[in-house]
Amino acid sequence: MRKEVFAVCDPEREYTAAFSGYLTRRKAVPMDITAFSDSEKLLAYAEDNPIDLLLINPVLLTPEVKELPVPSIVLLTDGDTIPEYGEYPCVSKYQACSEVIRQVLQNYKGSSDPECRSAALKRGIEIFGIFSPVARSGKTTFALTLAQILGRSRSVLYVNLESYSGFQDLLGSEGTSSLCDLLYYAGQKTDNISVSLLRCLAGTVAKAGKIDYIPPVVFPWDLREAEGSEFTRLIDILSRESGYEVLVLDIGNETEDVLHILDRCTHIMMPVFRDRISLAKVRQYEEALKSWGAHEILEKTIRIRPPEDIPTGTGTALLEQLESSRMGGYVRQILNEQIR
């Protein structure tokens, strides 16, 4: 049986990449997703491939496109209904991706399959927060290994919230955009924060091994100058709209508003050593949580003691080494015994 095709066509390449990526990662509709930024490529594709649902910017709705045998065409507008295209339903692009797809599916006429029509975005995202009041505890090694292993079966976004991540050496991270850019958009007080941030995310995300990751800040003051609300807003938008099934947050002590970030996590893992000094720091941290009334954070926190592994690779090779190392075995043990 042929799988139905959902085509997205908009001249903004970043938007089409972000929206189609959301649909693919989130598995929002049981259809094949394809994206175009001009009508000529759409027409060329349609010559050999039937399209069942077309979401298209009206500027690209040429007479030739109108003649395509597409059961459902929905216009992707800047917010207004366009009188000359009155026969077509319209949805605004400047809203949450989940709301766009909900409105599109309400106007989908092609399939009688109720799975397509409801296509509800019911998958809850898991957020793993890796945090420790103890320095040099193996936190980042554990977080990267966890992300790589989970990435074998699920879509994972790793976010490093440290002043000094070392990722230029570890993963070869040298992109032009970084976490700093996303925090900038998260700090804007406009109605379209989600759309702007997701566009930036599409051009920022890098890949290594089985994970996507946001290149961390290069200069530590970029992280220190960010307000706590920018971090929490960023996490809220990523968890609600990015389409990833798992977020792995590698949280440094310098991060503003750590408690509100941890509060958003479904699982918190705290690497610690068992020496007297480390345990004293942990006790102080836990007593502080109690005094602040953060009992839920304490309840969600799992103390872990990861093995010491010293990988030698870079990028994908590094992650594959970690996955097959003692650290990989330890992460699987924690997942099997404590999480699943």
Description:
With 340 residues, the protein is an alpha/beta fold. The protein has two domains: 114 residues, 3-Layer(aba) Sandwich (Rossmann fold), CATH 3.40.50.10850; 214 residues, Rossmann fold. The protein has 16 helices and twelve strands. A seven-stranded mixed beta sheet has the order 8-9-7-10-6-11-12. Strand 1, helix 1 and strand 2 form a beta-alpha-beta unit. The protein starts with a strand and ends with a helix.
Entry summary:
With 340 residues, the protein is an alpha/beta fold. It has helices at 13-26, 39-48, 63-66, 97-106, 114-118, 139-150, 167-170, 179-186, 193-204, 220-224, 228-241, 258-263, 276-291, 295-300, 316-324, 326-339; strands spanning 5-9, 32-36, 53-56, 72-77, 90-92, 126-130, 156-161, 206-208, 211-214, 246-251, 267-271, 301-304.
Distance between the termini: 35 Å
Low-confidence stretches: 111-123
CATH class of the largest domain: Alpha Beta
CA-based gyration radius:
22 Å
Shape: elongated
In CATH terms, the superfamily of the largest domain is: P-loop containing nucleotide triphosphate hydrolases
Q: Give me the count of strands.
A: 12
Biggest sheet character = 7 strands, mixed
Order of adjacent strands in the largest pleated sheet:
8-9-7-10-6-11-12
What fraction of residues sit in β-strands? 15-25%
CATH topology of the largest domain: Rossmann fold
Count of helix runs? 16
Instruction: Classify the helix fraction into a percent range.
Output: 40-55%
